[in-house]
Structures are given as C-alpha cells and as structure tokens.
Fold Transcriptional regulator.
Amino acid sequence: MPIIINLDVMLSKRKVSSLEFSQKIGITPANLSILKTGKAKAIRISTLEAICRELECQPGDILEYIKCE
C-alpha cells in the first residue's frame, strides 16, 4: 500500500503507550494496532483529528506516500 502510517514513530517520540493512547483517542487497542501495522484500509477523519490533537502534530507527520513502481 503506498500510504504509510508512521503512528508508531510518533508514539515513540512522544513516549506514549499504545494502551494509554487508544483510550485517549477513543478507539480499541486492536484498532490502534491495525493502524500502527499498516493493515488499515481506511481511517476516519475524526480518528485522524483525535490522533493529531493528542500527539500535537499534523496529518503529514504520520501519513506518508510512497510511490509504487
């Protein structure tokens, strides 16, 4: 998939545990794991907004486009 979600990098930089973070943004730890591992097919704008709010970052800080050849 050409869109990479660098959520694990941002969580590590902010020193936030996955469990604590999932509770703060209102998603299950299992769904957070799906986002972190890149297995998600979609992300809700409201979830992206909550992630950015809690991590004090921009969407571009966690989303990256990789051109497939």
About this structure: The chain is about 60% helix and 10% strand.
